[in-house]
Amino acid sequence: MDRSRNGRSAVTLKAAEWAGNGTQPAQRAAQRAFCIAALPEGDDLSELGELLRTAGVAVVGEMVQRREQPHPNTYLGPGKVAEAKAAAAACDANVIACDDELSARQERNLEEALGLPVVDRTTVILDIFASHANSAEGKLQVELAQLEYNLARMRGLWTHLERLGGGIGTRGPGETQIETDRRLARNRISVLRSRLEHVKGTRAVQRAERERAALPTIALVGYTNAGKSTLLNAMTGSEVGVRDRLFHTLDPTTRTLKLAGRPYLLTDTVGFISKLPHQLVDAFAATLEETSRAELLAHVLDASAPEAQQEIMQRSVEGTLEEIGAGERPRLLVLNKVDLLDAQARDELRFRHPEAVLVSGVSGEGLQVLGERIEHELAHMLRPLDLLVPYADGGSLAELHELAGEVTREDTAEGVRVRAMVPARLAERFARFAVAT
User: Of 170, 168, 165, 169, which is closest to residue 183 (Cα–Cα)?
Assistant: First the structure.
C-alpha cells in the first residue's frame, strides 16, 4: 500500500481522465487491484473487495480457481497464473490482491510471474489497522503485528553490502544487510512486547478497580462493521465514534449501562473477520482479554446481510472466541440493523434464531427487550437481601440504592427496612445489616 509521510495509507488520484462521452471527468484510482483466490468451493470475493475499499484501493477485476489446496509455489496453478496476468493487464490493474495469507515463496514467485506487486489478505488487514490505530496502545499492537508478519518476508536487496560486518582480523563473510535488518526487527519486537506487557499490567490495575466495584460486565462482540459501536451509543447515551467501515474500533471502550436503575458495564470490542491474522490475535491479546473476562458476551450479528454471509460471520466469530479462550462464556445473540428489513425478513430471522433479540442501534427498536434479556441472563449474579439499615448509616443506604437500582424500602422505628437484589460479590458489605429470619 502507498504510505504518506505519517505512515498511514494514502490513496491519491491521478489527473482526471475524460469519459468517452466527453461530458464529465472520470477519476481513476492510483491503486487498482485485481483480486485472486484459490477456493475449494464458492466464488465470493466481496469481503476482500470491502477490505480493499476500506484501505482506499479500487477493485477492477477478480479471478477464482477451484482448488482443494493452493499451489505451494505460485498459489494459483501455472496455467491460471498466465490467465490472471492477461486479465490483470486487460483491467489496467497495478496490484494483485490475494484472498489468503501467502507464504514468502508464493508471494515472490507470483510477483515474478505476474510482473506486478502482490499483497495478501493479511497485508491488507494490517494496513487497515495501521491507518485506524489512534491510541498509543493500538499503534504498538499494530507495529508488533506488522514486524512479526514481515520478519520472514525480508529480502536481500542490499547485495553490495553482503560483507557489511567483516573487516581486517575477522573471519567469515561478516553480517549481511538482510541479517542486520532481521536483527534490528527482532530487537524492536522485544521492545514492543515489553511495552505491551506494561500496558497489560495497567489494564490489570484498571480491571481490578472494576472488579472491586463488582459490576456485571457485558462485552459486545461480533463481526467487524456489525454495528457494535452504534449499539453501545444507543444503550448508554455515549458518543463513541461510528463510521461505516471495517475495523473502525480497535481499542475497547467501556461505558456504564443502567437497567432498572442497576449499573452494568458495557464494553465495545474490536471486530472479528474471516481468516483473522494470528499476528493480530497475539498482538491484541491484552485488548481481547477484556472479552474473555466478561460475564456475558452479546454477539452482535448484521441482520441485513444475506443468510449465507450471516452464517460465515457467525462461524468466524465463534472460531475467534475459541481461539482467545472465550468460547465457554455465556452468550446472547443480538441481530442488529433490523430497521433495514421488511416484516417478512424479520419473521424469517425469528424462525432461524428463536433465542435471538432483534434490535436496531439506529432507530432504537428492540433495545428495551435487549435490556430485559441482559438482566435475565445475569440474574444468577444477584443475591436477595433483607436488611435493616440504621438512619445514621445513610452512606450505606445510598450505596445500596446505587448497586441495586429498584429496592423495596419501609421506614421503621429502628431504621430503614430494605429488600433488594445486589451483586453476590458485594453481599458481604451489607451482612451486618441482615435481618435474621
Answer: 165
End-to-end Cα separation, the chain, in angstroms: 71
Q: What phi and psi, each to the nearest 5 degrees, are found at residue 334? A: -120, 115
Residue type, 122: T
AA identity, residue 30: A
Whether pTM > 0.85 for this model: the answer is no
Cell of 420: 433488594
| Domains along the chain with CATH numbers | 17-119 (3.40.50.11060), 214-377 (3.40.50.300), 382-433 (3.30.70.240)
Quick one: which of 373, 369, 366, 290 has its CA closest to 331?
373
CA atoms within 13 A on the CB side of 346: 14
Q: Name the average pLDDT for the chain.
A: 79
**In 340-353, which positions are buried (b, 16+ CB within 10 angstroms) versus exposed (e)?**
ebeeeeeeebeeeb
pLDDT score of 317 more than 60: yes
Q: DSSP assignment, residue 74? A: T
**Backbone phi, psi, residue 156, to 5°:** -80, 85
Give me the pLDDT at residue 437, please. Answer: 61
Per residue in 223-261, pLDDT tens? 888 888 889 889 988 776 555 556 655 667 788 888 877
pLDDT of residue 420: 82
How confident is the model over 255-277, as pLDDT tens digits?
Answer: 888 887 778 888 888 778 877 77
* Phi and psi, residue 191, nearest 5°: -65, -45
Cα 354 from Cα 361, distance rounded (Å): 20
Placement of cell 525480508 in the chain: 154
Instruction: Give 298's contacts (C-beta < 8 A, 6+ positions apart).
Output: 218, 219, 220, 221, 331, 332, 334, 370, 374
Q: What pLDDT does residue 267 have?
A: 86
- CA dihedral for 332, 333, 338, 344, sign (positive or negative): negative
Higher pLDDT, 400 or 39: 39
Mind giving me the DSSP string for 15-51? SPEE-TTSSSEE--BS-EEEEEEEESS----HHHHHH
Rounded distance, CA 171 to CA 245, Å? Answer: 55
> Is residue 194 within 8 Å of residue 140, measured between CB atoms?
no
Q: What is the pLDDT of residues 160-192, one digit of tens each?
A: 444 444 444 444 555 566 677 778 888 888 888
Distances from the Cα of 393 to the Cα of 36, 74, 388, 416, 435, angstroms: 70, 75, 10, 10, 16
CA separation for the pair 365, 371 (Å, rounded): 12
